[in-house]
Amino acid sequence: GDAFNGALAAALAGGVELSKAVRTALAAGALACTKKGARPSMPTKAAVAGLLRSGG
User: Fold this and answer.
1) Could you give the number of structural domains in the chain?
2) For helices 18-32 and 2-13, what crossing angle results, to 10°?
3) pLDDT tier for residue 38 given thresholds of 50, 70 and 90
4) 3-class secondary-structure state, position 32
5) Torsions phi, psi of 33, nearest 5?
6) Helix axes 18-32, 45-54, angle to 10 degrees
7) How far, in Å, CA of 54 to CA of 56, rounded?
C-alpha cells in the first residue's frame, strides 16, 4: 500500500486528474509487488511511466 498511496498522493499534489492519478498509483503498486523489501521495492517514476506506456 505504501507505493500506491505515495504515488497517488504525489500525482494528486502535482495536479494530475483523479483517474490518471489512480492508474499511476496502480502501476506503482504493481511494480512494488515484484521486489522484496520496503525500500528496494519502491518503483521510480521512470519505471511507473514505462509500465503505463507498455499498457501493463
Assistant:
1) 1
2) 150
3) confident
4) helix
5) -75, -5
6) 100
7) 5
Domain that holds residue 50: 2-54
Q: How many Cβ atoms from other residues are within 10 Å of residue 52's Cβ?
A: 15
Task: Measure the CA–CA gap between 35 and 1, rounded to whole angstroms.
Answer: 14
Nearest to 25 by CA among 43, 4, 54: 4
Q: Stretch 3-7: mean pLDDT, rounded?
A: 97
Grid cell, residue 49, equals 511511466
The model carries a pTM of: 0.89
- What pLDDT does residue 39 have? 86
The residue behind cell 500500500 is 1
Q: What type of residue is 6?
A: G
